[in-house]
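Section 5.1 Outputs to date
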Amino acid sequence: MRCDAVLIAGPTASGKSAAALDLARHIGGALINADAMQVYREAPILTAQPDARAREKVPHLLYGHVSVNEAYSVGRYIEDARRALAEACALGRIPIFVGGTGLYFTALTEGLADIPPIPAEIRAQARALLDEIGVGALHARLALRDPETAANLRVTDPQRVVRAWEVLEATGRPLLHWRKKQIAPLLGGMTLARFVLDPPREVLRARIAERFEIMLDRGGEQEALALSGLDPVLPAAKLLGLRQLIAHGQGRLSREEALAGAVTATRQFAKRQATWFRNRMGDYRWFDPIKSNIIAQYNEFVA
């Protein structure tokens, strides 16, 4: 079977980057990042981006190309992915999208809501309002004007609450209205080999703990401290372990406390990722990377 592109998803620390690299070397692929946190150039350690040795082996696209101070969105990602796809094809390589952001995979394969651009002044006003009254009060205001969208948003999620508010302010229509208007999927019509890495829970938990130990040893604390003034509304403020490592660097948490907090938050995040994958990616080929490998899975798919 001919394969136009490969999609490799999995929870954080599942080994998907290493698997993707192995497959890329095997089939002549180019890796295209599909992880919302690995786009940030100021956080290569905290986001476990592929190192220089990996990048020398095959092309790596859309890693570390965005500033943490930018409000990067899935819409921008799709436009970047469009250019990366063209670049991979121009190089004569099979594009391999790899990451842990389920929404990116959904946008690539199912399309994206056609939300109009939000003027900068409305973004600024929405953020100023959030700073003035707090996320709880803003969520309450949103619920009065757009109860359906508000009901689908956690009151503790300032990024998504302010996004819904600014869309409503800019367009006069609820966010859910625009989500019903779809742009055609970037990978529509292609033959896709789609995989989800699904390691045993105990293996994943151990890898998450080990990853943070390695991050600290490689300078993750210094990287986190450099981001201590980051606007909490920005997507990059959700970097896993960021809050705990800043607190450690500032002397407010011990190393053990910071590691425990970061590991717990990451395990909870991995659980949410797995839930998304089960609900939205059931038609992918799932496999345990302890018992099998991506090359064997790919060979079975194209046979």
